[in-house]
Amino acid sequence: MNGNERRIVGVSDLARYIKRMLSESKVLANVRVRGELSGVTERGGRVYFDLKEQHDVLKCVVWSDVAASLPPLQNGSEAIVDGAFDTWPARSQYQLSVTAIELGGVGHLYALVEELRRKFRVEGLFETARKRTMPPFPRRVALVSARGKGAEDFLTTMARRAPHIEIAVVETRVQGEGAQMDIAEALDAASRLNVDAIVLARGGGSYEDLFPFNLEPVVRAIVRAKLPVLTAIGHTDDHHLADDVADRVAETPSNAANYFGEIRDRWLARVERLDRALDQRVRDASRASAQRFDVTHEALLRAGAQVVASRAQRVLVLERRLDAQTPLARLAQRAQRLSRSVARLDTAARAGLNEAKRRLEVRTAHLLGQDPHAPLARGYAMVFAGDTLLRDASTVRGGDEITARLERGTLLARVEGTREDG
To answer: What topology is assigned to 111-251 in CATH?
Structure first.
């Protein structure tokens, strides 16, 4: 091999060489590293975190036999770390296998959050009495977020769980230097929209990535918002000062969407209960009307029978009186008068029965007119806005949801517009 030729080695040989250089370095063996803890996580008894200084990052791992002896680790805390430098050849990554950690007090980020927390608590910004009530049935919601996984999760879940809600997206930057000002401006813009509530959301990230949601401009924007604000920032265990002042908090963007879906489920269940109650009331009214009809019909029949019996009794009395008359002429005369009387009695009885029948028919028509199903059977519908039966088109507006009950089934509709007839 001449001087111009370069040695060729395999990837594995090079990885082993670099690993050996790090592990055998006398300089690194005497080094302790100072930085700020970030991304602290625990998996399988091991602890992983980044040690950061400005934009530089050192990956660290604490093995399970050492992790049990360490003090509690918190993102943002400053620390001095001892350990052995090693490599992870599968990712061409070097890391520090930690053997000891000396905490140097809370980091400047954590200290800033604690200072702001004390300030806001004194101002009463965390008090429940200050917070606004979420709308009982929101129809339009503003989403303040960057386009990314968090916004995508929220929109996808809303389309499945609450498709009736219209969403206005107010896009904003959510991390990086000055992001807190962009978020505050986006919240102010959302407050000026014609919506019922505001959702402030973003996906997960490191403590530093999510830090703008701890800063004063974002907190102040939530407090001064004209509409209720629901925060859904990061993952389940993340919590920020923005959450402390929000009117409602969801653990993730998907959970925020499920909150609106639960509102829809409750209203649908209420509509079903009201529909069943209405059916029961109609059935009860129909049975009551039928019973009153039967009672009236029987009473009229009894009255007619009493009239006929009374007239027949009078005829019998007259017949006995005629039988007591012996002269044939007077007998014939009485017989003729009796015949006329019988005819008048028959006419009167028929008139009485006809009048009773007429009253029965009037009463029957009146009872049938009270049947709630009667108009539905003729093609009409009963239109409701919520629980209210509509009689005037001016009481609803375009975009309102209404239900129309037919003879069979119920229609769900949205008002396109109204007009006055006449």
So the answer is: Rossmann fold (3.40.50)
Segment holding 373, helix H or strand E = helix 373-377
- Dmax (CA) for the chain in angstroms is 174
Q: How many residues does the chain have?
A: 422
Q: What is the pTM of this model?
A: 0.49
Q: Tell me what the pLDDT averaged over the chain comes to.
A: 85
Look-up: residue for tokens 């969801």? Answer: 250
Residue 120's nearest CA partner among 42, 223, 193 is: 223
Q: What is the pLDDT of residues 28-83, one digit of tens each?
A: 777 888 888 889 999 888 999 999 987 889 999 999 988 888 878 888 888 888 88
**229 CB contacts (<8 Å, ≥6 apart)?**
132, 187, 197, 198, 199, 200, 222, 246, 247, 248
Helix (H) or strand (E) holding 379: none
- CATH number of this structure's domain 11-106, picked from the four choices 2.40.50.140, 3.40.50.720, 3.40.50.1820, 2.30.40.10: 2.40.50.140
Q: How far is CA 291 from CA 76, 172, 279, 284, 287, in A?
A: 79, 68, 19, 11, 6
**SS3 of 183, please?**
helix
Separation of alpha carbons 137 and 268, rounded Å: 11
Domain chopping of the chain, boundaries: 11-106, 111-251, 267-371, 373-422
Integer CA distances (angstroms), 65 to 31, 42, 209, 369, in order: 22, 13, 31, 86
Fill in the DSSP letter of residue 45.
Answer: T
Rg (CA), the chain: 44
Q: Is the distance from CB of 169 to CB of 207 less than 8 angstroms?
A: no
pLDDT tens across 186-200, in order? Answer: 999 999 999 999 999
Residues 6+ apart with CB under 8 A from 15: 87, 89, 92
Please report where in the chains the tokens 């017949």 appear, as a residue.
319
Place of tokens 């036999």: 65
- CA 5 to chain centroid, in Å, comes to 72
Rounded CA separation 72/179 (Å): 30
